[in-house]
Amino acid sequence: MRQLLPRPPVLLFAVAALVAAAIAWGGVSLAKRERFERIELDRGSLGIVGRQLQEKLDTLEAEYEEKLESLCRSDLNDRFTLSDAVDAVVGVRQFSTLNLAGKVDVHLLAGDVAEDDAEVPLPVFDPDHLPLGRRRAVEFSGREAFGGGVTHARGWVDAPDGTLFYFCNVSDSRTTLLLIDRAAAAASVEAWLASWMEEALTANAQKEGGDAVAIDGRLAASAGVVPDRAADVAMQLRFRFGDWQIRSWDPRRRIVEYDRGLLTGASLLAMFVLIAAGAGTLYLNRALRVAEQRVSFVNRVSHELKSPLTNILLNTDLAADGADAAGRRRLGMVAEETRRLSRLIDNVLTFSRSERDAIELETGPVALRPLISDIAEQFRPSFERRGLSLSMEGPETIAATADADALTQILGNLLSNVEKYAASGGVARIEASIEGSEAMVRVSDHGPGIPRGECERIFLPFRRLDDRPSEGSSGTGLGLAIARDLAERMGGTLRLVSPVSGESGACFELRLPLDAVNDTENVIDFPETRAS
Questions:
Q1: Long-range contact list for 14-17, CB < 8 A, 24+ apart?
Q2: How far apart are CA 304 and CA 249, in angstroms?
Q3: Which of 186, 428, 445, 459 could bridge 422 with an S-S bond, Cβ 3.0-4.6 Å?
């Protein structure tokens, strides 16, 4: 309901408060400066872990080289035993021996190698020495590439294509080469040290920050909180199989600062908006009070006018009973203008109540034909002076569910509209009928009609067709707006419809709920004489 809605000044101040809050919040957001300060940790214990891990890697690498050297010196005559020895050492993919000419004397693949022999790189001094069917060769410059050709020399050789070999000059005329799978060797070492790394890092973990062991950029073990950013400290470890590092992250302290200039500007702007809204609210409140006082004054004056108008109308009727024909005609004109003034006052009062949502209707069964007849009699003298004939059609026993006073005001406003604008048509008609579950009343005329673009706007308050050249077209512009509002409050509708084909003018159609019984035994009869 309208009275439950907040007053415009309250809405204005609420919106201004929201705008001010948004400005203040935006100022705080723009003025906010956030940075993180690194808190450096003492990494003495982590350094101990790094040295221990380096020692373990050195030890494992040395033990691995001993196994490889032992494999290099295996008995070449026992191929089955040699094959088992190759498979027993992790990471060995191929066992090969080269003679002084650089040709392969013995070539053996590890049992877990699934590649075709042609794809496994074969070490040679000269690509022409590559056996038939082999497609991939690793070329060395000569026996000098293996420890300078010194007998019993051993060590590692990185081939030009990136493959890794372990060599051992087992005699003056033979060099053994082992093709090593770096990834397999690294995975074996990682698995061997996994538990120790986790325990060592956890035992030396800081209260804040995080530590980890990374292998080829991948975290293999960690403790504490490891953030998704580059490490603050990285200790490089020496190891042949992979890039091993101990990484450490320092904690960060979040520091928030504000730009005082922006903050002050936003605060001043928010205060200005609130002050302006407060001033606007005071002004609107004062204006509303003045408007309410004016409306109250109009209501009081209108109420005060109703009583004398009623007395004038009653006394006019009494005086007409004893007057001659000329006197009755003049008194009839007085009564007619009195009723016109009474309808105008009723419209003003109804519009005022509608704006405050203070209209109270009492609906019930109302007989339409007596009510229409009474209103028609009130307008008949005025219509006759303007050359308008008014006819009524419809059955006598139609009853609608409505408020009698509101229905009287609706029909009075519609006939007043005909009186003002349609006198040139010469004919006006009121029809009552039943359509389905509704009672319908149509008020039509043969006047100049209403332009198509105005069909809905004429129901707006204060909307008048000022461009009509009709006599007596003065008015407040409230009649049709009030009529539609009252019809809708009674559960009905009021609209402008197209006239009957071939006819000109305007036709207003009022639809109201049909009374359930629809007889005239218990309906409200409209009195024969009314002041409005």
A1: 15/277, 16/273, 16/274, 16/276, 16/277, 16/280, 17/274, 17/277
A2: 89
A3: 445
3-state secondary structure of 475: coil
DSSP state string for 236-289: EE--SSS-EEEEEE--EEEEEEE-HHHHHHHHHHHHHHHHHHHHHHHHHHHHHH
Both structure tokens of 307: 């009583």
Nearest of 470, 351, 463 to residue 418 by alpha carbon: 470
User: b/e for 220-237, b at 16 or more Cβ within 10 A?
Assistant: bbbbbebeeeebbbebeb
Q: Is 154 helix (H, G, I), strand (E, B) or coil?
A: strand
Rounded average pLDDT over 314-320: 64
Token pair, residue 272, equals 């200005």
140, two tokens: 């060395």
- What string of H, E and C letters represents the secondary structure of 40-108? CCCCHHHHHHHHHHHHHHHHHHHHHHHHHHHHHCCCCCCHHHHHHHHHHCCCEEEEEEECCCCCEEEEE
CB atoms within 10 A of CB 18: 11
Q: Provide DSSP, 513-532.
A: EBPSS--SSSSBPPPS----
The residues, any chain, with a CB within 8 Å of residue 106's CB and separated by 6 or more, are 76, 95, 96, 97
> What's this model's pTM, rounded to 2 decimal places?
0.48
- The H-or-E segment that residue 218 falls in is strand 218-224
Contacts of residues 425-429 at CB distance under 8 Å and 24 or more positions apart, as own/partner, are 425/388, 425/504, 425/505, 426/387, 426/388, 426/389, 427/388, 427/389, 427/391, 428/383, 428/388, 428/389, 428/390, 428/391, 429/390, 429/391, 429/392, 429/393
Question: Which tens digit of pLDDT belongs to each residue from 71-105?
Answer: 999 888 888 899 999 999 999 998 988 888 878 88
Rounded Cα gap, residues 266 and 219, in angstroms: 48
Which value, in Å, is the radius of gyration of the alpha carbons in the chain? Answer: 54
In whole angstroms, give the CA distance from residue 247 to residue 254. 22
For residue 209 the two structure tokens come to 């920050």
- Tell me: the pLDDT tens digits for 278-298? 888 888 788 777 766 666 656
d(CA 442, CA 447): 15
What are the residues facing 452 on neighbouring strands? none
Sign of CA dihedral 349, 351, 355, 359: positive
